[in-house]
Write a structure and sequence with these properties.
heterotrimer; A mainly alpha (about 130); B alpha/beta (about 200); C alpha/beta (about 200); A: about 130 residues; mainly alpha; 2 domains; about 55% helix; C: about 200 residues; alpha/beta; two-stranded antiparallel sheet; 9 strands; globular
Chain lengths: ~130, ~200, ~200
């Protein structure tokens, strides 16, 4: 039957995949190109200074985005780290508490001690007292 | 195509349409308003979107928080002179095609606060308004009616020809002049390209 | 403590202070206390800190614009008209110069009493519009004094942050003054006037 066709069918085992691939690309490209064509014909671009402005609250942006933060904020960063890291490690520890060995518990207590030490240090520095 | 032929065909289960109709049908059923309320009318607007009045039936349930994704600006409430530049700037940032509903007496003309030193006498002085709704505040039904009027307006717009809407005309800009806060009030007092002064209209 | 007692105490204990009761003729009869502008701050301090008054809360600050007004009085005088002495009525007109006035409403949270209404006048409406700010005494007066500055143009001496609050920076008028004229506007009103028969 194949011998009667003017172009011999490709017998390669991947031929169907190639056909499907082309079909997939065309299937995606048709609506995209139609949309592009529609936009060319019926949606003339009209850019402008205000339309392209970064800020979209109706107010005009003023000042510089590059502002300096006080270097003493590192204290807050450290305190945040203390509590944050503590929470991250404490949660699995608490969840698996009943199945843990004594050594694991001791290791966790040493970890907590280190964090508490940091907290005490922060306390002594007066970070936690409000101005 | 002839309208009679179309109805005749539809009786036989054949649906005939044009690109223009299909396009407008899609647009009018997906008008996304801007999340934007100015005064007490905004409360009615919020009520309209809620379950009892359900603006989602008309395809307008998505209130976008960014002007870049919105098609419709519902100016709901008193526009103070201090707020007017911001309103115009937001309108300028909306992509075309864009529509404006002027909701309530204040947004139309200043309403009860018209003689106030700080109240803009109608937002149509600076931006083109498609539908005005009177009322103080208008009921949600009135807003729905305005919305349906806007839908009718959208479906009547042509894609080609001289009567095509502004956004299809390449040479017309999509931005309008933003008023500035001057020493005695807004400068200029109105945008003459947009505002149809009733006095001048009547005088011819 | 009645207003009269407060008045006499103010005059006695704040040196140089001149206080005067302004009678309110309406049914509410809410009389107020007019204090001279040089001693406003001292008088306010006294009212807040006096143990019997303890007016610790200033709920409201507002202002009144009093333009120049004419007072007409009818005076009967005797005159010789055509050789005969007659009693003739004459109207005598006196002009009271305008001024700006601030009004403070004071309450005592501790004593559950109030309000005591305090008033102060500026010297005139044009160049001497300065008054002592009472924000150092009652912090709640800050924004409302800014409002009075914005809308009436009263300058408060000793205010920590005297800027416009409702109108924008660069606005030059004071819209709540009686002689304020909004920018002219060719609009519907003109139409209503110019229409024949209207």
């Amino acid at each position: 039957m194949g011998k009667n066709l003017p172009i011999a069918p490709v017998d390669h085992p991947w031929a169907t995949i190639v056909v499907l691939l082309i079909a997939a690309v065309v299937f995606g490209a048709i609506p995209l190109s139609l949309a592009w064509l529609w936009a060319r014909l019926f949606s003339p671009p009209k850019p402008g200074i205000q339309k392209n402005a970064t800020y979209e609250c109706g107010l005009e942006a003023k000042g510089d985005a590059w502002i300096q933060l006080n270097v003493s904020y590192y204290l807050y960063a450290i305190v945040f780290l203390i509590f944050d890291v503590e929470a991250v490690f404490l949660l699995p520890f608490a969840a698996a508490f009943s199945g843990l060995s004594l050594a694991a518990c001791l290791a966790m207590l040493v970890f907590l001690l280190l964090l508490v030490e940091g907290l005490i240090w922060a306390c002594q520095k007066g970070v936690l007292t409000w101005a | 195509m002839d309208q009679d032929l179309k109805t005749e065909l539809s009786k036989h289960g054949i649906f005939a349409t044009t690109f223009e109709e299909l396009y407008n049908w899609g647009r009018k059923n997906s008008v996304w308003p801007l999340t934007f309320g100015l005064a007490c009318c905004a409360i009615e607007m919020i009520a309209t979107t809620m379950a009892r009045y359900d603006l989602a039936r008309f395809g307008a349930e998505v209130f976008r928080a960014s002007p870049r994704q919105a098609d419709l600006m519902i100016v709901s409430g008193t526009v103070t002179k201090k707020m007017a530049p911001q309103v115009v700037r937001l309108y300028n940032q909306m992509p075309e095609p864009k529509y404006v509903i002027s909701m309530g007496a204040c947004a139309i003309s200043g309403g009860p606060f018209r003689d106030g030193y700080n109240v803009l006498k109608g937002i149509d002085r600076y931006i083109p308004v498609d539908v005005h709704i009177p009322g103080c505040p208008p009921r949600p039904e009135a807003l729905i009616h305005a919305f349906m009027a806007l839908q009718d307006k959208i479906s009547a717009q042509h894609l080609t020809g001289e009567s095509r809407p502004r956004h299809l005309k390449r040479d017309l800009p999509s931005e309008f002049q933003v008023p500035e806060l001057g020493e005695h009030g807004l400068e200029p007092q109105q945008n003459d390209e947009v505002f149809r002064n009733p006095l001048k209209v009547l005088q011819g | 403590m009645t207003l009269e007692e407060i008045r006499s105490r103010l005059e006695a204990f704040v040196p140089g202070c001149h206080a005067e009761i302004v009678v309110n003729g309406s049914p509410s009869a809410q009389n107020s206390l007019l204090i001279d502008r040089q001693h406003g701050l001292q008088a306010a301090m006294y009212l807040r800190d006096h143990p019997e008054l303890q007016l610790d809360f200033c709920s409201n600050v507002t202002a009144v614009d009093w333009p120049d007004r004419e007072k007409a009085e009818k005076i009967k005088t005797k005159r010789i008209v055509d050789g005969v002495e007659k009693e003739v009525e004459e109207t005598k007109k006196t002009t009271i110069p305008g001024y700006l006035e601030v009004v403070y409403h004071l309450f005592s949270i501790a004593k559950k009493e109030g309000p005591v209404v305090l008033r102060m006048h500026t010297a005139n409406r044009t160049d001497e519009v300065t008054l002592q700010s009472l924000t150092p005494v009652w912090r709640s007066a800050e924004f409302q004094e800014r409002e009075a500055f914005d809308l009436f143009g009263i300058v408060f001496e000793g205010h920590p942050d005297l800027r416009r609050i409702l109108m924008w920076e660069g606005f030059t008028d004071h819209p709540m003054r009686k002689d304020y004229v909004p920018p002219p506007d060719d609009d519907l009103e003109i139409l209503a006037v110019s229409e024949p028969g209207a």
